[in-house]
Design a protein that fits this description.
alpha/beta, 56% helix, elongated
């Protein structure tokens, strides 16, 4: 299909032609913003070249935003958590400058691991999701999963003779975020399957984990000492270890709010 071309179009005909052309070329942002941008360009007496640049930049910016939204959705985060919403003042154990440096994603570019270790309520899952979100916004492919869910999926894949395919799928993403590692004991088979995923990613793509157990307590999750040591090695070599502490600021916030209500 081709659009009729003629000089001296009326304003209404020109708007119709632009709308049809944008539909054909799949330029939804230009199509929706064209009237406003055209009015602004006329008011500011933009050159033809400047006006064209404004249109194209608007389309590019909106496409980048939509791609980021798709990557964030594909990551499977259970809730929306951002660094902007993280209360660093409530957790003095954390170095805000270091966290914001991690948000620049250089460690992901290098394929290095990240470990967030601390008790419940200290913000490790918030940081895991927030840093994963920053990575998705920066253009990296991210996947979030609970440790038990990942292991169960691997066991089912092995039973269905789909293990190689499943491990490859988890191996392809640029950043794999594993939450709640250490909450439950894994049998030897589950631990070995998880180890295969970590081995598949080693030196190529990053893994970030959040755990409520220090490394010395991981033998309760991975009962084979040699396998436990190998997994710790995969998750720490060359990477960053962030300790979020033992004092739950979530609990402290609840107590403070309850106290205010009581005294009020």
């Amino acid at each position: 299909m081709s659009l009729p071309r003629q000089r001296g179009l009326t304003e209404q005909a020109a708007n119709t032609a632009v709308d049809q052309a944008c539909r054909m070329l799949r330029l939804p942002t230009i199509r929706s913003q064209f009237p406003e941008l055209a009015e602004s360009g006329e008011r500011e007496q933009m050159s033809y070249l400047g006006f064209l640049a404004e249109l194209l930049l608007a389309e590019c910016d909106d496409r980048a935003r939509r791609r980021s939204e798709r990557r964030i959705k594909a990551a499977g985060f259970p809730r929306d958590k951002s660094l902007r919403k993280f209360d660093f003042d409530a957790n003095p154990n954390l170095d805000a400058a270091m966290i914001h440096t991690l948000a620049k994603c250089e460690w992901i570019k290098k394929g290095l691991p990240l470990c967030l270790i601390g008790d419940s309520g200290t913000g490790k899952s918030h940081l895991l999701i927030a840093l994963g979100t920053e990575a998705a916004m920066a253009g990296y492919r991210v996947k979030y999963v609970l440790a038990t869910k990942l292991v169960n999926e691997l066991v089912e894949a092995a039973d269905d003779k789909q293990l190689t395919k499943t491990i490859a799928r988890y191996g392809r993403v640029d950043l794999l975020c594993i939450d709640e590692l250490g909450y439950m004991e894994l049998d030897r088979r589950g631990a070995e399957l998880l180890f295969q995923v970590l081995t598949e990613r080693e030196g190529k793509n990053s893994v970030a984990i959040a755990s409520n157990e220090s490394f010395s307590g991981w033998t309760k999750t991975f009962t084979d000492p040699r396998l436990c040591a190998a997994i710790v090695d995969r998750l720490t070599f060359g990477g960053n270890i962030i300790e979020t502490g033992t004092d739950s600021y979530r609990l402290a916030t609840t107590r403070a709010r309850t106290g205010q209500q009581t005294t009020g």
